[in-house]
């Protein structure tokens, strides 16, 4: 019985093996039948333009003048002549201190002035008599000298009495407290009827129009801006006062008035490594209040012959940042660049590109150095059938992968909207293991795409990962 079973089982096993091996071999033969088409990518031609440059900082609003109103003489506080928190003008009456003592001192000083003046008049008459007697020889020169000295002392006493009168008058004036500047008053610090000492705080006045906004810039950034202005890269301002400043609130709204920078510190804060600057703006409606946090935007600078690229075009490799450019044969080439500044959704390139260069901006994950590509002009993404938005640089890849997975056949050439998906072949898998450069702005998504490209048995996963990258 054993030889019979062996003779029957061997043909059946060979038949089953042939059924399993035949589709795989056919698929491999079909995949190796021709070279894959070049991947479709979006290409932009580099153009130079004048680019306005703005700098944004966090700022804090402060009053342009913060004045402490203090008592300059002691006494009983009789009256407060303003409403707390109200606006006062320069010279408005704020407080009255009991003036009785100072009025008496003024009267005494005036009497002393009169006494000194009377003594001076008597000394002058004595000098005249002594001079006349000395000229006739009836009196000695010593008597004349004494009379002259008495007159000079009388003049000095008059000056001293007048100074004492002015001092007493000032003390009387200080009993009436007036606003030294216009602004908004704070709370009263001392109630009426209190006994004041010289120097006691009475209230504060904040001048809110104009108003200041203090902000700080990193020392490296400030130095970079200064160098760019000096070497002519940045145009439009030769001094901080030439820049225009605008304010943006936390809710996104913009303050309707603009200001200028009126102060920049010449020292660096040793604790924060920043340079303090101050902007001044008109504030007639008091929309800006002291202590308020705002976003301060510095405008007025521009870069001539500037080159900008979308952020997704920037790549990161072992040697630094670069982009892919196309030569005359539409083959991709690595072009190292220097990024001067990150903008809103784009980058400012300072070195590495020239006007007229063709740069791959979308579909960079499908590009290999030296390989040909199918360049497509930049355009608005179209809505594919089914209501889902089309991707950038890999349009149709997800749909093609899903279609091939549903049919159970390897996806060799699947198109959507005229674009060709990448082939799922063994060489592509090997290339994915080598770790090609990926977009600097989307490193995780680029890694997911490369892993999906290395798994030809899961076309649905490939399509899903690429769709996530596109979105």
From TrEMBL:
Region (Disordered) location: 364-471
Identification of the protein by name: Efflux RND transporter periplasmic adaptor subunit
Cellular location(s): Cell envelope
Residue span, Multidrug resistance protein MdtA-like beta-barrel domain: 210-297
Biased composition (Low complexity): 395-424
UniProtKB keywords: Coiled coil
Domain Multidrug resistance protein MdtA-like C-terminal permuted SH3 per the UniProt entry, residue ranges: 305-364
Major localisation: other
SUPFAM superfamilies noted in UniProt: HlyD-like secretion proteins
Organism: Fulvimarina endophytica
Biased composition (Basic and acidic residues): 461-471
All residue ranges annotated as the Multidrug resistance protein MdtA-like alpha-helical hairpin domain in the record: 108-175
One GO molecular-function entry: transmembrane transporter activity
Pfam families named in the record: Beta-barrel_RND, BSH_RND, HH_MFP_RND, RND-MFP_C
Keyword Ligase attributed: no
Family designation: Belongs to the membrane fusion protein (MFP) (TC 8.A.1) family.
One GO term (biological process): response to antibiotic
Entry coiled-coil feature ranges: 106-133
Keyword Coiled coil in record: yes
Gene Ontology cellular-component annotations: cell envelope; plasma membrane
Domain Multidrug resistance protein MdtA-like barrel-sandwich hybrid: 65-200
């Amino acid at each position: 019985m054993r030889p019979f079973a062996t003779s029957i089982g061997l043909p059946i096993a060979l038949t089953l093996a042939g059924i399993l091996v035949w589709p795989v071999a056919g698929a491999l033969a079909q995949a190796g039948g021709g070279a894959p088409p070049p991947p479709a990518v979006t290409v932009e031609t580099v153009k130079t333009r004048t680019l306005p440059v703005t700098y944004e900082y966090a700022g804090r609003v402060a009053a342009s003048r913060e004045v402490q109103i203090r008592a300059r003489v002691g006494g009983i506080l009789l009256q407060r002549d303003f409403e707390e928190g109200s606006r006062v003008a320069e010279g408005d009456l704020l407080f009255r201190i009991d003036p009785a003592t100072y009025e008496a001192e003024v009267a005494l000083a005036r009497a002393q002035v009169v006494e000194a003046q009377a003594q001076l008049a008597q000394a002058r008459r004595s000098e005249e008599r002594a001079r006349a007697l000395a000229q006739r020889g009836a009196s000695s020169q010593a008597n004349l000298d004494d009379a002259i000295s008495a007159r000079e002392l009388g003049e000095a006493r008059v000056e001293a009495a007048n100074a004492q009168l002015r001092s007493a008058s000032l003390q009387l004036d200080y009993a009436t407290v007036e606003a030294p500047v216009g602004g908004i008053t704070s709370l009263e610090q001392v109630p009426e009827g209190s006994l004041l000492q010289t120097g006691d705080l009475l209230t504060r006045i904040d001048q809110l129009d104009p108003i200041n906004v203090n902000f700080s810039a990193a020392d490296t950034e400030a130095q970079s801006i200064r160098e760019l202005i000096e070497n002519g890269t940045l145009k439009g301002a030769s001094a901080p006062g030439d820049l225009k400043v605008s304010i943006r609130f936390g809710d996104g709204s913009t303050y309707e008035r603009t200001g200028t920078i009126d102060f920049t510190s010449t020292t660096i804060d040793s604790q924060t490594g920043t340079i303090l600057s101050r902007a001044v703006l008109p504030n007639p409606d008091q929309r800006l209040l002291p202590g308020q946090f705002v976003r301060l935007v510095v405008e007025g600078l521009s870069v001539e012959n500037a080159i900008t690229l979308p952020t997704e075009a920037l790549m990161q490799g072992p040697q630094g940042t670069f982009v892919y450019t196309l030569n005359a044969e539409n083959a991709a080439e690595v072009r190292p660049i220097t990024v001067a500044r990150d903008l809103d959704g784009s980058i400012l390139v300072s070195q590495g590109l020239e006007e007229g260069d063709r740069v791959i901006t979308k579909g960079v994950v499908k590009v290999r150095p030296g390989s040909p590509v199918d360049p497509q002009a930049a355009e608005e993404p179209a809505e594919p059938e089914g209501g889902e938005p089309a991707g950038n640089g890999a349009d149709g890849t997800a749909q093609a992968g899903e279609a091939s997975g549903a049919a159970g056949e390897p996806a060799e050439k699947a198109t959507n909207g005229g674009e060709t998906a990448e082939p799922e072949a063994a060489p592509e898998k090997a290339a994915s293991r080598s770790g090609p450069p990926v977009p600097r702005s989307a490193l995780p998504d680029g890694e997911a795409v490369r892993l999906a490209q290395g798994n030809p048995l899961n076309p649905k996963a490939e399509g899903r990962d690429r769709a996530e990258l596109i979105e």
